[in-house]
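Checklist before submission:
- one chain only
- standard amino acids only
- sequence pasted in full

Submission:
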Amino acid sequence: MRVLYLLNVSNASQLSADSGYTFADMLAPALTDAGAEVTVASPVPVGDARVHFALTASPSTKYRARFDPGMDALVALIRDRRPEVVVANQIEAAPAIRAALLEAGWTR
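Returned file contents:
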């Protein structure tokens, strides 16, 4: 199973204080242990080298992190990685992710 984990990092200078990063750093390796091919799309990689990494631009403000998904880059990432499952650490991103999946031709 191919998993695309979309991770917004709002505290890149203090990763230990970023709850989204902390959760991804635990969950992504566990999914890999279970046999999934996991790609974390984020400004920083998680700590496990078995987890693939796709560099994403770091948003300029906390508001852009939540409400500006960078649609062109997101569609390109989905087309490139062809995920079967998408995990997002922010519910606010769900409508944009759904739109990107549709634009990329994802039919699941």
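Reviewer check: The helical segments are 19-33, 62-67, 71-81, 94-103.
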